[in-house]
Amino acid sequence: MIYLDNCATTRPDKEVIKVMMDALEKDFANPSSLHSFGHEVEKKLEEARASAARLVGADKEEIYFTSGGTESNNIAIHGEIIKNRRRGNKIITTSIEHASILDQFKHYENEGLRVVFLGVDEYGNVDEEEFRKEVDDDTILVSLIYVHNELGTINNVKNLIKIAKEKNKNIFCHVDGVQAVGKIKVDVKDIGADTMSFSSHKIYGPKGVGALYKRRDVMLPSLVIGGGQEKNLRSGTENVPGILGFGKACELTFNEMDERLNHAKEIKNYLLEKLQENLTDYRINSPENSSDFITSISILDTRAEVLLHYLEQDEIYISTASACSSNGTHKSSTLKEIGLSDKYSEGTIRICTSKDTTKEEIDVFVEKLLQYTEEIRNIMKR
Description:
Layout: E1 2-3, H1 14-25, H2 36-56, E2 63-66, H3 69-84, E3 90-94, H4 99-110, E4 114-118, H5 128-134, E5 139-145, H6 157-167, E6 172-176, H7 188-191, E7 195-199, E8 210-214, H8 240-255, H9 257-278, E9 282-284, E10 294-299, H10 304-312, E11 316-317, H11 333-337, H12 342-345, E12 348-352, H13 359-381
Parallel strand pairs: 1-11, 3-4, 3-5, 5-6, 6-7
Antiparallel strand pairs: 2-8, 7-8, 9-10, 10-12
Helix pairs in contact: 1-8, 2-8, 9-13, 10-13
């Protein structure tokens, strides 16, 4: 099997699986229990929290465990709007955010808030001058994706947050860091975010668990009222196996960061070279300064979904768009927003590598890609 859909999810690391199995078999106590067994499990949760905090440059007390990136985004955005709504009525985001961001803002637009969806250039970059013009005293929230899930574009969130805070210090600034953490070096203190979401299953951890960074002086109301877990921000008995697995994934990612980034860069450069040498009539949608784990390619005179199914016959797995909405079969709004014509967007695939991807796998993938592209093109010419 050649798995190149690592933006959708990653294969859990063997060390992560071992930690989770131990949690299921041995560390099964409720961490809220008063007895020593519960305290021991609680201690391990706090160690996982410290690992997650270290990975993003936060303090341990600023990390809250959730069910994943979508819930983290919801807690932050919903809470920040409730806290700040009396100050103004305007929200600023981009037109190519993840569905867990865009759908929330469409909801609030229906509730009467003014939402500005900033346009982007052909590579998904936000226009800083347009952003500067939009930020004003009526702005209560800015939400920005750090690394784009389809294009790999790395937004300069540090500069954008600085612009926002200089113009209006009361603006909440949220960052969707789901595709950034583990793929680039992230320091939440340096970028100046008030909140940032990230997820376990994007960094070789289990699904169903993630985290929200919340700056220690930011107070948010909870979405869930219950037993007071996660300092009342996210009540409910903790997913101990998931959190401990996430903590181990964060630890491994932090320790192997330079090695993983260098490997990803080498593999991406190799992929691009192979495509340039062999493939015709295509374009790369990812900018040069994009994440080295993500490559968006549009191939003329093909159908991406057909190509995907051809490749899966050989157990080669890619995607056509984000897998986080409509099973990835919807027409990507991102491709429309970057101005890609239909003749290119119909043939757009996303290749997402991992720490384990090899050059030999890229060789096989490119060979099969060329074979099936030619077959599809011949069929379409009839």
